From TrEMBL:
GO terms for biological process: intracellular calcium ion homeostasis. Belongs to the short-chain dehydrogenases/reductases (SDR) family. The keyword Oxidoreductase applies. The keyword Ribonucleoprotein does not apply. InterPro entries: NAD(P)-bd_dom_sf (IPR036291), Sc_DH/Rdtase_CS (IPR020904), SDR_fam (IPR002347), SDR_family_member_7C (IPR052148). PANTHER family: DEHYDROGENASE_REDUCTASE SDR FAMILY MEMBER 7C, PTHR44668. One of its GO terms (molecular function) is oxidoreductase activity, acting on the CH-OH group of donors, NAD or NADP as acceptor. This is Dehydrogenase/reductase SDR family member 7C. Keywords: NAD, NADP, Oxidoreductase, Signal.
Amino acid sequence: TYAPKLMLLDISDINCIQDVAKEILNCYGCVDILINNASMKVKGAVQSISLELDKKIMDANYFGPITLTKAILPNMISRRTGQIVLINNIQGKVGIPFRAAYAASKHAAVGFFDCLRAEMEEFDISVSTVNPTFICSYHRQSAPGNWEASIWK
């Protein structure tokens, strides 16, 4: 058994993910199960959401999980064992009005992990995608006029 170690990670900060993955592998030697369960969502009409916010949502919900997965994957492949889980959302399968950025990022993640599942079969690495319906999240209030006021984490 290993003593738990708290590692803070902003999944939308792609640049720090590699360092955190290296730290995890240095500390424990391997990852048996990787559960990707972080995301951000925003509610608003397509024309009212900035491209900057679209990119931030895509970084958190698509590039974050795939970057972390790609950082851990070589270790799993070399050991020919492991399990990768993406906790996604039904909006990765069905678009809902006023959730275009969120749904697009979740669709992209489903596509990536579906392909990864097929590729990892030869290495005996299991890849699962869980698509629950609506998930209770908390809303972070920002200063008035700040575009981040509509972000949910």
